């Protein structure tokens, strides 16, 4: 979703749709642009938003962040439509074919790390990944590189004299240093592509701040907490989640990261909308939290990363971007 005086660039349901609802409630004057891969779903989201906020300015744009050509074309289209972007919410994300490691879950239940296990899902999930037509790992392309190419394509609209822009990534508690490796940054050789991609997001945000703050572009990462959406319905059937609800309300007393619904999950995204970007700490992730009584708040937590790794990763992305340009964005294997 993007906004000029507020807009963001991705989802149509889940956290993305709830975010749009809340942004429109915060500021009826914003110009929203929903950048989505499925126009039917996008139109449905637009209609729902117009129903609750009649007369608001909500535009649609087709983009598949899993496809290089589509991202480049979308960036060109945005350049034609807008003079500047105040907010770029990078929310699209996938976790394909997740599997729960039952043994790790049961062991975790009886360990001292049980609370952190529920908060982060660390070590509990594996995913399948595949290679796209562009020759890149799908999860990396969708969760990280597609967004990076979009930012690069939109550079002239992001951060103009006296008017800073915010790039806001939906990262995760599940981002894990040990799942990420600079030598396999696309995670072609492991089974934790989601964890790896979210760690990559955190690194990239840090590097973007280093390179772009001086020209008025500020990047932040948030974690929405555990939210029941299509993404988590891929892990367990919605009916099972409903059965687990009383247990999850109980767990919420011990870990504030079980936000559970999309309204709660967007707390940090909306909070960032209201902050002066210059006042934000680039090394912090902003977490949406919900207390046992159902109150929402935002907690900043330092990220487990170092600036040297962020810089090295950024260089690798620039090289990859160069390769995609050389090869006209398609069919070559760039890894
Ligand atoms: N739910 C959770 O517990 C958590 C979620 N997150 C993150 O929050 C973000 C939103 O996820 P959530 O709302 O939960 O899940 P959803 O599956 O509901 O939303 C994901 C959105 O991303 C869009 N998307 C996926 N692939 C592409 C693509 N190639 N091009 C364009 N759009 C795409 C989907 O579009 P379409 O509608 O067409 O499928 C969908 O709207 C993700 O980045 C996720 O990793 C982080 C932590 C926890
Ligand atoms: C809640 C109970 C009793 C059982 C569910 C067990 C797991 C399926 C569940 C526990 C912690 C969850 C979790 C996520 C997925 C589902 C769990 C592993 C995420 C990894 C989903 C995506 C994210 O980005 C993370 C923030 C979530 C962290 C917690």
From TrEMBL:
GO terms for cellular component: endoplasmic reticulum membrane. It is a single-pass membrane protein. Belongs to the short-chain dehydrogenases/reductases (SDR) family. ERG27 subfamily. Pathway: Steroid biosynthesis; estrogen biosynthesis; Steroid biosynthesis; zymosterol biosynthesis; zymosterol from lanosterol: step 5/6. PANTHER family: 3-KETO-STEROID REDUCTASE, 3-KETO-STEROID REDUCTASE_17-BETA-HYDROXYSTEROID DEHYDROGENASE 7. It is found in: Endoplasmic reticulum membrane. It comes from Callorhinchus milii. One of its GO terms (biological process) is cholesterol biosynthetic process. The keyword Membrane applies. It holds the Pfam family adh_short. The gene is hsd17b7. One of its GO terms (molecular function) is estradiol 17-beta-dehydrogenase [NAD(P)+] activity. Binds to the short form of prolactin receptor. Its EC number is 1.1.1.210, 1.1.1.270, 1.1.1.62. Coiled coil: none annotated. This is 3-keto-steroid reductase/17-beta-hydroxysteroid dehydrogenase 7. InterPro entries: 3KSR/17beta-HSD, NAD(P)-bd_dom_sf, SDR_fam. Keywords: Endoplasmic reticulum, Glycoprotein, Lipid biosynthesis, Lipid metabolism, Membrane, NAD, NADP, Oxidoreductase, Steroid biosynthesis, Transmembrane, Transmembrane helix. It catalyses: zymosterone + NADPH + H(+) = zymosterol + NADP(+); 5alpha-cholest-8-en-3-one + NADPH + H(+) = 5alpha-cholest-8-en-3beta-ol + NADP(+); a 3beta-hydroxysteroid + NADP(+) = a 3-oxosteroid + NADPH + H(+); 3-dehydro-4alpha-methylzymosterol + NADPH + H(+) = 4alpha-methylzymosterol + NADP(+).
